[in-house]
Amino acid sequence: MTTLQPIPIIGKTPVETRPFAIRRFPLVLVIGVMLMLVLIVLHIAVGTLDFTPRQIVLSLLQRPEEILHYQVVWGLRLPRALIALTTGGMLGLAGAILQTVTRNPLAEPGLMGVSSGGVLAIVIFLIVRSGNPDVSTATDAGLVLPLVGLVGGMAAAALSYGLSYQGGSDPVRLVLTGVLVAGMCSAFTSLLLLNAEESQLQRIIRWTVGSTSGRVWMHWDTLWPFALVSIPVGLLSAGLANALQLGDDVVRGLGQRVELARLILLFIASLLTAGAVAVVGAVGFIGLIGPHMARRIVGGDVRRLFPMSIVITAILLITSDIIARTLTIGWIGVFTGLDIPDTAGLPVGAVTALLGAPFFLYLLLRRKGEL
């Protein structure tokens, strides 16, 4: 008697042959979160004033050995570390969403012009209000500058989508339009910098490059509401993003409107980017590198890709910030004659650019080899 053999299901991979990170995804995610906690402690420990692990723990428990330890840990370093982690996660999720929606592996959070638009709005505000002593002497003008950057970023995203919409939004046309809007915003920013007062230049450049320096609890209070809303919404959009990356026909087959689905995802990505840029400025490349690394680890299923992109990019940004706080650029003053303090550190955006430029070149060469 002939026994019937089961028919193999095409496209299904046996569970035991899948990579470890996919089979044990919750464990990998927990390991990533634990690494984030370790990096927070390391971020607090390093700087011009070094702390031991014991001093950090006692300060976090509000039982410091010295009052100075408590002031530095709670007042300066802890909020900066939390901001670096959160903005990194937001930029990573935004990059993963954009790469999925546009089906373009080179897409990143600045694609829709959000970063450039937010920085342009901030620069305009700083130059216009430079004569107002109440604004010019306040640290980043309190909560005003972050809100200005948020409005400018969302306006740039709306402009990119509006210009690309011609009876429908095409991913390729959207990418090209986003690059155009970002280039225009950057060009206007450069023109404004030429006419800015010397006293404003350093402050403006921190926003154009991206920096976590001087970020305290006031800035955290601006950031966390956007993170609390946009990150869960972005994670909940995984099913919609999974369908959209398979093609418009799949979305229609599921009874969804393609244009509405794409618009929702683009809005979420723009909100994530604008919220981050409004606090730390235009930190480049980090939203490109993180999602690519996450995809290498957990594959293209966005149900795993989105949360892993948050964790990986958060780790990358806080690590870059540790490097930025550790390295000093005082030696540049020796060669250039500029008045640069010996303890002056790098902005985190400069570190991510140094990491991102070769990575971007690697992606270009890799894609060229696949053609």
Write a concise synopsis of the structure shown.
This protein is mostly helical and 371 residues long. The chain has helices spanning 20-23, 25-45, 53-60, 67-102, 114-128, 133-136, 144-164, 171-194, 198-209, 217-236, 238-245, 248-253, 258-280, 286-298, 302-326, 330-336, 348-370.
Structure description:
Helix content is 73%, strand content 0%. It has 371 residues and is mainly α. It has one domain (19-364): ABC transporter involved in vitamin B12 uptake, BtuC (Orthogonal Bundle), CATH 1.10.3470.10. Helix 4 (67-102) runs parallel beside helix 10, helix 7 (144-164) packs across helix 8 and helix 14 (286-298) packs across helix 15. The radius of gyration is 22 Å and the shape is globular. 44% of the residues are buried. The model is unreliable at 7-11 and 133-139 (pLDDT under 50).
Give me the count of strands: 0
Number of domains: 1
| Fraction in beta strands | under 5%
CATH superfamily: ABC transporter involved in vitamin B12 uptake, BtuC
Structural class by sheet pairing and helices? mainly alpha
Query: Please, what is the average pLDDT?
Result: 81
Report the radius of gyration as a whole number of Å.
22 Å
Q: Which segments are poorly predicted (pLDDT under 50) over 5 or more consecutive residues?
A: 7-11, 133-139
Please write the CATH class name: Mainly Alpha
CATH architecture: Orthogonal Bundle
